[in-house]
Amino acid sequence: MTLRTLTLPLKVLASVFLLTIGVAYLFALAYLYLIDVEPHTKHGMGLVAAVIMKYYGQRDTTRLEAVLQGPMGQYVTDSQRTQLIQWIRQGAGEPDFAKVQPILTEACAGCHSASSGMGLPSLTSYAEVARHTVVDLGQSMKSLVRVSHIHLFGMSFIFMFTSLIFVFSEIPTSIQTFLVAIPFLAIWLDIGSWWFTKHDPMFASIVIAGGALMGLSMAMQIGISLYEMWFAREKA
Ligand code: HEC
Questions:
Q1: How much distance in Å is there from the Cα of 217 to the middle of ligand 1?
Q2: What is the mean pLDDT of residues 78-101?
């Protein structure tokens, strides 16, 4: 039995399944782009930097220091900024908060307080400020465990089905073997490197390579299968 000679109901079933999976994959890519990539590229960050930010975090600075060096820096004098950054780098402890509180009240609370009515995070008490002085360690273990198991279960089912259809194609067995193994290798590469990137940013490009490989092999399985079912002619 080959894809070309399947009964019509089986051809239709296989085709609508493959098309739906293909569209789902495009939506997954769009989701990834909107949630993880676009917010960063807007600030001039590249794709690799965005992946590092997601899994490894931004460990050399805190959110508060980053905004003081950036957009919020205009609201403080140089010496006020120096004092605030010194406090952050010394651990942003509660005992010394009294020293920097007057600066925050003077320079920031005009906008960053409940009474400003601007809906911005309030920066008046220690607890409120401390939320912005933790170091960003990237995605938590808990959420990595969660997305890993969902993806491993989900992706292996998807590739089991697309591959089961694909192996009835008439292309050489060696290429078929290659194209059913590659997607699973790509899943391991992609998800494995989330974990490695959490510990070392140098693995970020493997996350991207694994994802690209997965998309490419899925596109080939779907493309070849659909072509053979509907367009291929009998070999002479
Ligand atoms: C004129 C009003 C204004 C003043 C004064 C101001 N900010 Fe902001 N701040 C904003 C606005 C608007 C945003 C949100 C827009 C953005 O993210 O660029 C913001 C965002 C922030 C954020 C990011 C909040 C988040 O959700 O991550 C931090 C932290 C912050 N400001 C700290 C400060 C500090 C510290 C000062 C004082 C040195 C300050 N701001 C002074 C208007 C102000």
A1: 45
A2: 94
